[in-house]
Design goal:
The protein is built from 13 helices and 12 strands. The protein is of the alpha/beta class and 394 residues long. It has 2 domains: 128 residues, Aspartate Aminotransferase, domain 1; 233 residues, Type I PLP-dependent aspartate aminotransferase-like (Major domain) (Aspartate Aminotransferase, domain 2), CATH 3.40.640. The strands form 3 sheets. Strands 2-8-7-6-5-3-4 form a 7-stranded mixed β-sheet, sandwiched between helices. The chain has a 3-stranded antiparallel β-sheet with strand order 9-12-11. A two-stranded parallel sheet has the order 1-10. Helix 6 packs parallel to helix 7. It is globular and about 60 Å long.
């Protein structure tokens, strides 16, 4: 796949909004939530849909498995996994739920999570613990905690009944980058299996599953890796794969992991088949250059908005070393809104409905937090526009 590349301003050659198709007038600062599929990748998915519909029987009977395995192999290698290490699933939450359903938890067992955990994943953990007669332990980790402090906080909460920990690589509401490799190593030393919720990691940061060496890992490809929505990878390390099975039972059940997840009845898997096109989209532009540009723009946008509304960034993730904190999502506290989640959601909807600005606002531990993302369709003008509106509204 070749990405069209007309000339761009020398000041920011990676500002490429023409490669996406947003509605006119929309300022989109929420790439971290649902991603935004580039036009070229949408076209690739449409080509797959046309191939399927040209001969559905021929495709599902004779081509689907081989084509899915080819796409899955490209994703596995992009993630630094072995060729048999990654299965396709619909999203990171589905992957985590699949692992929890397979774990042999017993009465009294405890699942360890942090207070940054994604809501649906927490509910999955609570359901698994309840069914087994166990408990979920929620560990507080301050927003400003550095890597060593985050590891220490998690390790200190381990008990002799802790069987598994579910840990974010990059948290959702709080946009915090966790030292996931160090956490995995520290917990393995204590006999605790780790499920990594990497919903925001693929594409946003380099991922090397051999280096991280998690027990289980689930990450979305439809956020920062340009795949169509509904595309994620589920990894299990060797020795733990045999127990993972799809639900419902797959037609490829006898083949085991990762193949069993790829034929759960008839479904539209053209998003999965298009995942390599998403990897190629950013690969042609240069992953390192894309990440560096987006990380810097997210930081610029965060500072610009904070200064405009008089918000202090003290205590926000990465503020101890802001230039080294490489993440394309950043937080701005909205203390004027308080800890009223309904007020946060109302402000978020007002920004969208009255001003066509899409940006998430939520509460965490009693604070209202606005999270900005940066992608190649964004420019500094987007954050200036949001800053001006917020200054008026607040």
């Amino acid at each position: 796949m070749t990405t069209p590349m007309p000339p761009a301003p020398a000041a920011d050659p990676l500002h490429l909004p023409h490669l996406w198709e947003f509605a006119p007038g929309v300022t989109y600062l929420n790439h971290g939530a649902f991603g935004a599929v580039p036009t070229a990748v949408r076209a690739e998915r449409q080509r797959w849909q046309e191939r399927v519909d040209a001969n559905p029987m021929g495709f599902y009977r004779r081509r689907k498995n081989a084509e899915l395995d080819r796409a899955r192999l490209e994703v596995a290698r992009f993630l630094g996994a072995d060729d048999e290490g990654v299965a396709f699933v619909q999203n990171a939450t589905t992957g985590v739920a699949s692992v929890l359903a397979a774990l042999p938890l017993a009465a009294g067992d405890r699942i360890l999570v942090t207070d940054h955990i994604y809501g649906a994943v927490l509910w999955n953990a609570q359901r698994a613990a309840e069914l087994a007669g166990g408990e979920v332990d929620v560990v507080p980790v301050p927003l400003e905690a550095d890597d060593a402090q985050a590891v220490a906080a998690v390790v200190a909460a381990v008990t002799d009944r802790t069987r598994v920990a579910i840990l974010d690589h990059i948290s959702s509401v709080t946009a915090k980058l966790f030292p996931i490799a160090a956490l995995v190593a520290a917990l393995r030393e204590r006999g605790v299996q780790v499920i990594v919720d990497a919903a925001h990691a693929p594409g946003a940061v380099p991922v090397d599953l051999r280096a991280i060496d998690p027990d289980y890992w689930s990450g979305n490809l439809h956020k920062w890796a340009a795949a169509p929505r509904g595309t994620a990878g589920l990894y299990a390390r060797p020795g733990l794969r045999e127990q993972l099975r799809s639900f419902p039972v797959s037609w490829r059940e006898p083949e085991g992991f990762p193949y069993t997840f790829s034929f759960v009845g008839t479904m539209d898997q053209t998003a999965w088949l298009s995942a390599p096109a998403g990897l190629a989209f950013f690969g042609e532009l240069g992953w390192e250059a894309v990440r560096a540009r987006n990380n810097a723009l997210a930081r610029t946008g965060q500072q610009l908005i904070a200064e405009s509304i008089g918000a202090s960034l003290e205590g926000m993730p990465g503020e101890r070393d802001p230039e080294a904190y490489a993440l394309p999502m950043r937080l701005i506290p909205l203390d004027a809104v308080g800890d009223d989640r309904d007020a946060c959601l109302a402000l978020m909807d007002r920004l969208a409905e009255e001003f066509a600005i899409e940006v998430p606002i939520d509460t965490w531990n009693g604070r209202a937090l606005l999270r900005v993302s940066a992608q190649l369709y964004n420019s500094e003008a987007d954050y200036e526009r949001l800053a001006g509106v917020l200054k008026t509204l607040l």
